[in-house]
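Thread: quick sanity check before group meeting

JM: Hey all, I'm pulling together slides for Thursday and realized we never actually wrote out the predicted structure for the chain we discussed last week. Dropping the sequence here so it's in one place. If anyone has concerns about the input, flag it before I start.
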Amino acid sequence: MKKIFNRYGLIVLVSVLGLCGCKKQAAPEQESPVSLERAEASENLQAAMGQYLQAAEEQQLNIQSVMVLQHGKVLYEKWLNGGEPDVPHVLNSVSKTFTATAVGIAIGEGLLSLDDKLVSFFPDELPESPSENLQKITIKDLLTMNSGHDTAPGYPSGDREETWTSIFLSWPVEHEPGTFYCYNGLGTYMLSAIIQKLTGQKVVEYLQTRLFDPLKIDAPHWDESPQGINKGGSGLYLKTEDLAKLGQLLLQKGEWFGKQILSEEWVNEATRKQVPCVPSWIRFDEVEESGLTPENSDWVHGYGFQMWRCRHNAVRADGAGGQYIILIPDKDAVVVNTADLQDMQAELNLVWDYILPALD
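JM (edit): ok, ran it. Output follows.
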């Protein structure tokens, strides 16, 4: 140390290493692995997975892959019934979670906000007299399936000339946005279209350097509308381990090997209950008649940003046919499935009955 005098004549001690000699140096970012780290499963988990697979076979549930992670490591993985580790699988509505992730990144980059109005992005495609409710729809309403539609706008078929965005914008909005849940795939497409409007890139391109490259996910295929916009709500193809990587990223509050890819605030908001929800195939006034309760159904625990809350304080991305990324924070675990089946609740029940109790 050496002594110097400041302007007031006071002695100031200065480190020979410099004025900031005690400043902690930032740790260098770690290189992301190509594959997730593997670890040996406990005997308890190995036995449970055998029971899980046997139960799936007995129930004729065509599960094609399962991967179980805990504390960031893959403890169990298996492909069956035609599933393959290196072949991308159609994700159906798990695609929605990737689209929402793109929105979260764009918000973090200051490109848009949850309160931005849908109509502001498509002034040339609005109906001649846009309704008051249509004009109120926000980014958040689209993320939470609360755009105000009483029935979901349908994807166009045949030789219809309208753009997919104009079909959505012309659909009646019977309820005030933010007050009525209606599962809405075309609403997720609108988020994809907004990202493309803002960035000049398709969502799959926008995510390449921001998500896929850091997680070492190969350039994926994502189906498009006739207008050249990724479908957003469906159409993405990825491998089982790719899904596990997104699940682990979310479990780690958006951090990946020293790099904050998604803000922790975004992950917290995306995975918490934002609005009440019901399965896509029924309405709120049909829940009691359907017999669905919080004790027997994972479809009535609330909806976040293109993710579902579940029993056991879990949260999931899900897609038709049995595609799942299931986050279980209380166990620091992620479970991933690809499948080709109808009874998705039965598939989830197997996770709760066999896998969950075996996670130490």
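AS: nice. The radius of gyration is 23 Å. The longest helix spans residues 43-58.
JM: adding both to the slides.
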